[in-house]
Hints:
The protein is an alpha/beta fold. Helices cover 34% and strands 28% of the residues. The chain has 13 helices and 16 strands. Strands 3-2-1-4-5-6-15 form a seven-stranded parallel beta sheet, with helices on both faces. Strands 10-11-12-7-13-14-16 form a seven-stranded mixed beta sheet.
Amino acid sequence: xxxxxxxxxxxxxxFGSRVARELSRDDIDLVLAGRHIDRARHLASTLExxxxxxxxxxxxxxxxxxxxxxxxxxxxxxxxxTAGPFQARDYRVAEAxxxxxxxxxxxxxxxxxxxxxxxxxxxxxxxxxxxxxxxxSVPGLSAAVVAAHLPRFARLDSVDSAISPGNRTPRGLATTxxxxxxxxxxxxVRGGGRWIRTHGWQSLRRIRHAALGTRWVARCDVPDLExxxxxxxxxxxxxxRAGLELRRMHFGLWxxxxxxxxxxxxxxxxxxxxxxxxxxxxIHAGSDTGLMTMDLAGIGHNGRPLRLRWSxxxxxxxxxxxxxxxxxxxxxxxxxxxxxxxxxxxxxxxTLDDFMAALAHYPxxxxxxxxxx
Length: 373
């Protein structure tokens, strides 16, 4: 029988390299691709020892006019796209995958990109393939958290999420550009049963964790803000915040958001390389421990208010493994059995137990506590 073949685009990046490390343990053909062939070769050399996969490297630029023919020539069963920032991407990679009859997964965190991928549904069904956007922390993991805890509620009213990576965790240029793209910019959120306007990296809030102390977070524009209310129409409120562990960086970005709002700064993303270099000067400060929390509130089956907090703590710099895990889960599931053809956001495709089991060999732990009831 032909071997299962995975094309991993952006393989040597922050998240792609972690997807590659996991999938290299599987008995598959794994094509490590990206614009810089030398970096792909270096990654392959680090994975060769102990790899069960047959590793290949290819030069591939997602902005190339030849992307469709390149993917067709490689003939993958699954294309995994990790080369962000997706705020600036179109669907040419997904369309090329569909055309050749390949399933498609991306790690997009861009709201419009993830919600808009459903526009490919007819084409995906016609070719018999599965197309998934946002196989990452949001909405992949966050949706699994909601689904796992929903049975405890008679009515779920709100979902408030926050992510705070450890400062010593490596960060990439694409992620930095994605964040700066919405800093100070307006976007709609669900609040009080209606859609209201807010701004990126504003509305400061503190989250407290028994082991990590206090961290500051601020509003971010992510797919959850649209995907979760669509999936759960009863939600009266859906919010998402993120934060930088070092206060000098977090509040500095808050001031930048104010400057964008009042028109003093018009193109913050172009400063991403400079700001990334500045943040790297402090890479040894703070911790290597990341935190994600999700507060779910509503009415319990006893008729009383119920509020739960689900938390996941990633130590020793393992935080980036979390957004890299959903794509690994899906690729392995599709190798075992053909998925139902469709295109849409990463919702209801794996359970929270499945997700945590895939992280069992990392220093990552999750817990749920009742905050009120």
